[in-house]
Amino acid sequence: MYDSFRDQLRRFAKEKVAPYAAKVDEEERPPMEAYEASRALGLPGLPFAEEFGGQEGDVLSQIITVEELARACASSATTVSTCWIMMLVQRFGSDEQKRAIIPPVVRGEQRSAWGLTEPKGGSDLMGVVTSAKKTAGGWLLNGTKRFITNGGWADWYLIFARTEADKFGIFLVSKQDPGVSFGAPERKMGLRGSPTSDVILEDCLIPLDRVVGDPVRGGEYIRAGLLASRLKYAAHGLGIAQGALDEAVAYTKSREQFGRPVSDFQMVKGMVADMAMRVEAGRALLLHAATLVMNNDPGAKKYASMAKVMCTDAAMSVATDAVQLHGGYGYLKDYPVERMLRDAKVTQIWEGTNQIQRLMIAKDVYAG
């Protein structure tokens, strides 16, 4: 089943995503061609329940989707999969929230975004200072969220805010709510087709029924959501690595030096072998972690962090080697590996830096 699904996604990415990858990067705009095509295939609704119009795709289906999209265009993979954060609403929200918000997201008519990182805190999620105060008229939110994927482009934002001294909640904020504004689009090294900006909340008053679940259990909800999303970001890195490997193999087979293909040279073969091993090792660990998550195994958290580190480190390493194997041409925007190298770097930074992931892994290892 998964093999045929992967084949379908690979054809889709090749035909509907890859042709626009360079253009959206160059123009620094959302990948609308790929996004609209993904709606026709039902990808924005992949993990959601059938009752909301979704396909009930499991974790393996989700990581396959992200990998195959990122293999062609990392920005498109990010844009499509960011819709899935509304699974937190499906899991922890009220029936009214689910019926009102999830179906338009599933259909791709409305877009969504996280609201986690802040100017003074990224990996220290529990250090957020954005506040949510309960008033007679609703929840009053104040704070700034930074580096928000789909910032200014999304319709709904899941805002993580402090409700008590050491308690947090998750709040549904609409782009149209009073008191919401957005910073200028960030000018990024890579992933330039994925909109990123600040989300600014200044006395943003939202209805009382816009809190997701219990307003003091947001930390618990976020940790549950991050476990699954960590696999998604690992798959994102894996897709970039595989795409860079594909390009390197194709180029070295076609490029000739000294009267024969570059792929005939021993040092080139050694580099390609190392690249392939990094990709396959990352994929094996990611699939293992996904299986543990699907089976609610207590070791899933550690392996999800391992997969995130290994796959995203592979993205950077393989993309760097792919540029090297292209020689001077790899430094030109005419070749996809230049874009892939720029896109790869952020995968080691977001969703908890790889340094933070290593500390979490070591903590679990020492705990036995």
From TrEMBL:
<dbReference type="InterPro" id="IPR013786">
    <property type="entry name" value="AcylCoA_DH/ox_N"/>
</dbReference>
<dbReference type="InterPro" id="IPR037069">
    <property type="entry name" value="AcylCoA_DH/ox_N_sf"/>
</dbReference>
<dbReference type="Pfam" id="PF02771">
    <property type="entry name" value="Acyl-CoA_dh_N"/>
</dbReference>
<dbReference type="InterPro" id="IPR006091">
    <property type="entry name" value="Acyl-CoA_Oxase/DH_mid-dom"/>
</dbReference>
<keyword id="KW-0378">Hydrolase</keyword>
<dbReference type="InterPro" id="IPR046373">
    <property type="entry name" value="Acyl-CoA_Oxase/DH_mid-dom_sf"/>
</dbReference>
<protein>
    <recommendedName>
        <fullName>3-sulfinopropanoyl-CoA desulfinase</fullName>
        <ecNumber>3.13.1.4</ecNumber>
    </recommendedName>
</protein>
<feature type="domain" description="Acyl-CoA dehydrogenase/oxidase N-terminal">
    <location>
        <begin position="4"/>
        <end position="109"/>
    </location>
</feature>
<dbReference type="Pfam" id="PF02770">
    <property type="entry name" value="Acyl-CoA_dh_M"/>
</dbReference>
<keyword id="KW-0274">FAD</keyword>
<feature type="domain" description="Acyl-CoA dehydrogenase/oxidase C-terminal">
    <location>
        <begin position="218"/>
        <end position="365"/>
    </location>
</feature>
<dbReference type="GO" id="GO:0050660">
    <property type="term" value="F:flavin adenine dinucleotide binding"/>
</dbReference>
<dbReference type="InterPro" id="IPR006089">
    <property type="entry name" value="Acyl-CoA_DH_CS"/>
</dbReference>
<dbReference type="InterPro" id="IPR009075">
    <property type="entry name" value="AcylCo_DH/oxidase_C"/>
</dbReference>
<dbReference type="Pfam" id="PF00441">
    <property type="entry name" value="Acyl-CoA_dh_1"/>
</dbReference>
<dbReference type="GO" id="GO:0016787">
    <property type="term" value="F:hydrolase activity"/>
</dbReference>
<dbReference type="GO" id="GO:0003995">
    <property type="term" value="F:acyl-CoA dehydrogenase activity"/>
</dbReference>
<dbReference type="InterPro" id="IPR009100">
    <property type="entry name" value="AcylCoA_DH/oxidase_NM_dom_sf"/>
</dbReference>
<comment type="similarity">
    <text>Belongs to the acyl-CoA dehydrogenase family.</text>
</comment>
<feature type="domain" description="Acyl-CoA oxidase/dehydrogenase middle">
    <location>
        <begin position="114"/>
        <end position="204"/>
    </location>
</feature>
<keyword id="KW-0285">Flavoprotein</keyword>
<dbReference type="InterPro" id="IPR036250">
    <property type="entry name" value="AcylCo_DH-like_C"/>
</dbReference>
